[in-house]
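Example for tutorial group B:
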């Protein structure tokens, strides 16, 4: 069975190419038409709009940035929606909140369509190699229909997670580990660099050791080479970070490691690096010798003050008004260290969990503020 494929970004383009090369000849569409050209060259049909994809294919995979993009492509909220999804299987492969996915499933089923949640683990390189891991959730019959279609892109495994939104919950759990691990790798790299170590040797020691894996090998090599080409953009990691923290707060769970990562990625975005790959959060704020006390006069943490000093146009933590800085601002304000929280931050901190109540993280005393 042929598939339609919508969304040819960093991940979607290599995924669709692998489907085309495997003979699945997907019908594709992307908002920016230029990204369709490699697919055309590989024999795929390039549709004029999303409606044409649905007209040509019964199963349509979406690898889109977020819920707004999915809504736009499906025509959600306008009469086109029901006509588009009825008698189709919509396969949502991007990363959104579990709640968003659950609501989308209900609307698609009410309109006479089927829905499968199929987020993937792995970044651009595994996507190019057809070595992603997929997590599936949905009605069993739809899941069984979709599973074999994903074979050319998900060589590392396809896992049945049960009903929607368990696949996205699984994806968020996996990403929590990934985000904190890669942020730790970046920090270790800067430690090695500042200690004057041979960075090639640092990479070789890591690669030879028990913690090595495809992620650490790929990212350590890129760090040592100073190669910041995008595998996953900082803005996207920040979005994922926020989704995980929201889900944690919804389950009344603190996530102190993740919150630190969120702060770093927020600073990086505020410094203007949101479209770069995802470890400059530490690269851009390379510290000098640690100051003895917070830079309270400026209302900044020492690291934020150093980042500002290193980057003359930077206002990393005072990026009030920048949505991704709310957590850092809110935390500093609560501690009496920072500027007033920007408008909207109350909503960001307004989850049901300890972050909303101003509680502390068990065992650490850390305030459990989260995005
Ligand atoms: N990169 C990773 O390592 C990775 C790994 C696993 C999962 N994911 C998830 O997979 C999804 C895609 O990631 P990506 O890295 O491929 O992102 P990306 O490169 O930013 O691609 C996003 C795609 O969404 C499209 N899009 C955005 N807004 C749209 C709108 N309003 N209407 C129609 N199309 C719209 C973009 O079209 P244009 O080309 O026109 O902008 C593009 O095709 C995200 O949910 C991400 O969290 C990413």
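The residue assignment follows.
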């Amino acid at each position: 069975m042929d598939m339609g494929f919508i969304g040819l970004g960093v991940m979607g383009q290599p995924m669709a190419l692998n489907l085309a090369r495997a003979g699945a000849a997907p019908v594709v569409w992307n908002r920016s038409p230029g990204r369709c050209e490699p697919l055309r060259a590989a024999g795929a049909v390039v549709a004029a709009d999303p409606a044409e994809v649905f007209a040509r294919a019964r199963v349509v995979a979406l690898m889109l940035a977020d819920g707004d993009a999915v809504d736009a492509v499906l025509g959600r909220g306008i009469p086109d929606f029901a006509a588009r999804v009825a008698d189709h299987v919509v396969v949502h492969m991007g990363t959104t909140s579990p709640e968003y996915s659950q609501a989308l499933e209900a609307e698609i089923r009410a309109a006479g369509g089927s829905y499968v949640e199929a987020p993937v683990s792995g970044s651009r390189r595994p996507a190019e190699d057809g070595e992603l891991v997929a997590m599936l959730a949905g009605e069993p019959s739809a899941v069984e229909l979709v599973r074999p279609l994903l074979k050319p892109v998900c060589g590392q495994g396809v896992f049945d997670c049960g009903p929607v939104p368990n696949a996205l919950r699984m994806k968020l759990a996996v990403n929590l580990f990934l985000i904190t691990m890669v942020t730790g790798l970046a920090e270790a790299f800067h430690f090695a660099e500042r200690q004057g170590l041979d960075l090639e040797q640092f990479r070789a020691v890591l690669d030879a050791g028990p913690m090595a894996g495809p992620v650490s090998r790929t990212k350590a090599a890129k760090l040592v080479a100073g190669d910041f080409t995008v595998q996953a953009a900082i803005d996207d990691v920040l979005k994922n970070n926020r989704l995980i923290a929201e889900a944690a707060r919804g389950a009344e769970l603190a996530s102190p490691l993740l919150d630190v990562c969120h702060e770093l990625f927020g600073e990086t975005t505020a410094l203007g690096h949101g479209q770069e790959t995802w470890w400059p959060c530490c690269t851009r704020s390379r510290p000098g010798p640690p100051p003895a006390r917070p830079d309270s006069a400026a209302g900044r943490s020492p690291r934020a003050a150093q980042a500002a000093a290193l980057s003359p146009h930077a206002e990393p933590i005072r990026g009030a008004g920048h949505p991704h800085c709310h957590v850092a601002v809110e935390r500093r304000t609560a501690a009496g260290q920072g500027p007033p929280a920007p408008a909207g931050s109350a909503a960001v901190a307004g989850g049901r969990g300890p972050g909303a109540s101003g509680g502390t993280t068990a065992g650490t005393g850390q305030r459990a503020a989260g995005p």
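Residues 321 and 342 are 6 Å apart (CA to CA). Compare this with the pattern of hydrophobic and polar residues in the output above.
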